[in-house]
Amino acid sequence: MILNRYLFKEIALNFLATLLVLSLIIVGNTFVRLLASASSGDLPLDLLGNMLLFGSLKNLLRLVPVALLIGMMLAFSRLYRDSEMVALRASGVGPKAFYRAIFSFVIPLTLVMSVAVFVFSPMLENQNQALKKEMYQRPEAAGIPPGQFVTAGNKTNNYTVLAEGIDDSRTVMERFFIRVQDGANEILVWAQSAILFVDSATGERFLQIREGYRYENDPERGGMSIIRFKEHGVRIPLRSFVRSISIESVPTLELLAIPSPANQAEFQWRLSIVLSTVVLALLAFPLSYTAPRQGRFSKIAVAILLYGLYANILAMLRGMMERGEVPAWLGMWWVHILMVLLAVWLLHKYYGKPA
Questions:
Q1: 257-262: long-range contacts (C-beta < 8 A, 24 or more apart)?
Q2: What's the predicted TM-score (pTM) here?
Q3: Which residues pair with 317 in a beta bridge?
Q4: What is the rounded average pLDDT for all residues in the chain?
Q5: Nearest Cα to Cα of residue 64 among 255, 307, 350
Q6: C-alpha angle with apex 259: 255 to 262, nearest 5 degrees?
Q7: What is the pLDDT of residues 96-135, one digit of tens each?
Q8: What value, to the nearest 5°, has the Cα angle with vertex 38 and ends 33 and 43?
């Protein structure tokens, strides 16, 4: 029991430290990317925190297996460096004792991962999609960058907008120009300012234009009418946002209820994230074997490369299953079996028969 608690503590501390470092890297990269979108006006500042939270949590689930692999290897490498592993083996402590400690930590972690991946991950993706939809339809994310022409629509029905400047709230556009083409009719509007808002009843966007001129051609009689106005309203189509039905947002029970190739691929992918936690825990102990005078971190690069190969093969199989190129019965399970066989081979190579 003393040895079990000691190994449990070593594994837990190194895992949490590794997960924290990887999380900081992921959160930092996500924050920089979102901050660039916010500075360009594509992302409202009040949504920055929520987008950062959901994006980071989604990526964090995928970091747990590799953090466990690296954390366990750091823990066991320290035991080799301090000759504690040699002393334990000389005292008759074999791989079985180590795996008891390993799985006393990994089994609860796997249960937590199962709930997170199968239940909470689709919910996070749904929230992420809802935030993106709100981002595209809010006035301050109208897609009208200052000093640039923005055109939307088709050949016969379109509009072109130019705003020389936009205030800090991303709603008031200064020295505003818009050209609207509606079939044979063409309307040009220039104004000192324009305010973009969303009608709470209909959800449509409108421009409230002030102090300007409206030029409209007359296709029947020819010529053009010029109107000077103090205030004028123009309806602007919502910025196009097609909410793709992301397979990642589908609840797990629905994936099982409709066994399409895409659903089966997504279910096996989620299952693979959970299984990889156990598989990498099996692999970490023999992979961390360090010969005398060998560096503590000598095997970590090998472990990262092995994990990269493992994860890329799973991702490749996921895409092939979605396209129907790989049948569901073959799927991804055999990749986990190969990794387990590799762990058994390494265990036999370095430690002989389990004891």
A1: 259/328, 261/321, 261/322, 261/323, 261/324, 261/328, 262/322
A2: 0.68
A3: none
A4: 80
A5: 307
A6: 70
A7: 888 888 899 999 999 999 999 999 888 888 887 777 776 6
A8: 100
